[in-house]
Amino acid sequence: MVRAFYPITRSSAINMLGVQLPLGLINIAGHATSSKELHWLLSVFAGIIMCKIVYQLTGAISPLFFTGYVKLDDQKKLEWNNRGFSSFHALVVAAASLYLLLESDLFRDGAQDELMINRTSASSDTILGISTGYFLADLAMIFYYFPALGGMEYVLHHGLSMFAIVQSLLSGQAQIYIFMVLFTESTTPFVNLRWYLDVADQKNSKLYVYNGVALFLGWLVARIFLFLFFFYHMFSHFDQIKKVYPLGFYSLLTVPPILALLNIVWFWKIAKGLIKTLRKARHSQ
Questions:
Q1: Which of 54, 234, 221 is nearest to 133 (CA)?
Q2: Where found in the cell (predicted)?
Q3: Which of 192, 195, 10 is nearest to 85 (CA)?
């Protein structure tokens, strides 16, 4: 398949989900159909609804497990519930990514005649749509309550993630690399549990220490080692990478390194926090 380039003109723009997308930016010619467009839209909507439902459920069931929840101020309750659907999304996409990458034949070398960089399925499109809905919902909350739910680093992370996911969903290309990155969300529940334990005044508990160790190891594997494999995989399949449409090609060369840098910065903070926690736990014995 030869990489196509289309000049950005009024006649070369198409209407996708009500948005004019120049073909020179996202090449979806021959991939997008009316049924796929509806599928994508419903998946994004499902992701937003999922966030809303889990947000409400988190607020409803939290007092059953943590009596101090009712004493939290409104800002703490807001973040508590927000982290509830953040954890749920992370578990869903991490499990789906693990299945699509390792168990299914979708991205396995030699499993299909189609180039690996161009492989998609109804399941992969659904997960990407749901994840897009999550990032839209969470980013909207971050902006609305800024900076209560996170600073500019979260805006950058969410913005870049959504930028890459939407491109891959609409073009049908490079989904394997999107799912590699989405698997890194598997560390999010550990991050959220640490925050929950902190708010619940359980920083001196064994669970806090164990969670800190699990977060450190999980981050090392899922966000450091996996990104090293990510770059190795891109290098070894660069003949296929070059066939991606222009914006996607350059995004693959720029977005992952930025996310990797963010992961390294956060990993450094996690490591320092773990050392501090272990020292404190040793002295309290």
A1: 54
A2: Membrane
A3: 192
